């Protein structure tokens, strides 16, 4: 399903974010990805979303080689993904229904299909009674469930959850992970959850991958991996294991333009 083979990523300023990373994730797996700030988690996620490409090595996801994927094909590839962010990213002046439906509108879905899929997605996350509410009328946990419904509505094969419990309390955090677990088990959806909450991850019998210095430092599915220190300094805080990332302009752009040109591309391919 997901294969990183000898993947490295060095940015133009010389920062080596990913260093010879190798991993395989099977379809239907639930994987926690943990690591300190600066360990390479954000770049790892950006490469899955095809926001970044490797400097070397190959990435293949569901049979698609991302290194050579043409720009015109990226929106179609991203339909395989459902993205859940720490800060929810809901549209404040739209209802719960409209926030979830947005993900289908941008790919040109028919209204009857939108109504059916939105109702189903909201039922999965337990928010059928909140369809007419606005984000400011919801708790933090409920807002994150709306974001999860939005990720599910297009029947994504892979859910990528970037610190989905970072802005909610511990009780709600467990509820969100329980919900992701339910979706994983009942829909065979592949779940990749990045989190700094190692203790939360340990409460579940799931695979935990630790990224350090841009590579896989440990992997509970492969206990033979004991970690290799490549000498790249980590950006750690004296009081915290993880520091939440700042707003990321590239990811904001990804959200703004997700599927925007699908109609034009579909028309072009038919000619």
Labels describing this entry:
alpha/beta; 10 strands; single chain; six-stranded mixed β-sheet; four-stranded antiparallel β-sheet; 271 residues
Structural class: alpha/beta
Give the SSE string: EEEHEEHEHHHEHEHEEHH
Helical stretch count? 9
Largest sheet: 6 strands, mixed
Give the integer mean of the pLDDT values: 81
Q: How far apart are the first and last residues' alpha carbons, in Å?
A: 32 Å
Helix content: 25-40%
Count of strand segments? 10
Strand share of the residues? 15-25%
Strand order of the largest sheet: 6-7-8-3-9-10
Assembly state (oligomeric): single chain
Shape: globular
Q: State the low-pLDDT regions, or none.
A: 228-252, 258-271
Rg, rounded, reads 18 Å
Topology:
Layout: E1 2-10, E2 16-25, E3 30-34, H1 41-48, E4 56-61, E5 64-65, H2 74-78, E6 81-84, H3 96-105, H4 111-124, H5 140-152, E7 158-162, H6 170-187, E8 190-194, H7 198-202, E9 207-212, E10 215-219, H8 249-257, H9 262-270
Parallel strand pairs: 3-8, 3-9, 6-7, 7-8
Antiparallel strand pairs: 1-2, 1-4, 4-5, 9-10
Helix pairs in contact: 3-4, 3-5, 4-5, 5-6
């Amino acid at each position: 399903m997901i294969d990183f083979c000898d993947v490295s990523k060095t940015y133009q300023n010389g920062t080596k974010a990913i260093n010879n990373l190798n991993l395989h994730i099977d379809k239907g797996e639930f994987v926690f990805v943990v690591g300190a700030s600066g360990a390479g988690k954000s770049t790892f996620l950006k490469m899955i979303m095809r926001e970044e490409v490797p400097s070397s090595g190959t990435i293949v996801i569901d049979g698609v080689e991302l290194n050579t994927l043409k720009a015109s094909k990226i929106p179609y590839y991203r339909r395989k993904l459902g993205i859940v962010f720490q800060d929810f990213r809901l549209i404040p002046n739209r209802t719960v229904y409209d926030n979830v439906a947005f993900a289908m509108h941008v790919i040109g879905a028919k209204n009857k299909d939108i109504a059916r899929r939105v109702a189903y997605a909201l039922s999965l996350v337990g928010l059928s009674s909140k369809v007419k509410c606005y984000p400011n009328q919801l708790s933090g946990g409920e807002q994150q469930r709306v974001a999860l419904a939005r990720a599910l509505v297009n029947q994504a094969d892979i859910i990528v959850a970037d610190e989905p419990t970072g802005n909610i309390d511990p009780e709600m955090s467990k509820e969100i992970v329980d919900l992701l677990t339910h979706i994983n088990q009942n829909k065979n959806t592949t779940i990749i959850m990045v989190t700094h909450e190692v203790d939360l991850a340990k409460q579940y019998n799931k695979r935990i991958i630790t990224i350090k210095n841009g590579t896989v430092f440990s992997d509970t599915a492969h206990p033979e991996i004991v970690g290799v220190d490549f000498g790249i300094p980590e950006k750690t805080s004296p009081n915290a294991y993880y520091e939440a990332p700042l707003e990321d302009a590239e990811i904001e752009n990804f959200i703004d333009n997700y599927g925007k040109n699908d109609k034009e591309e579909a028309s072009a391919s038919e000619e």
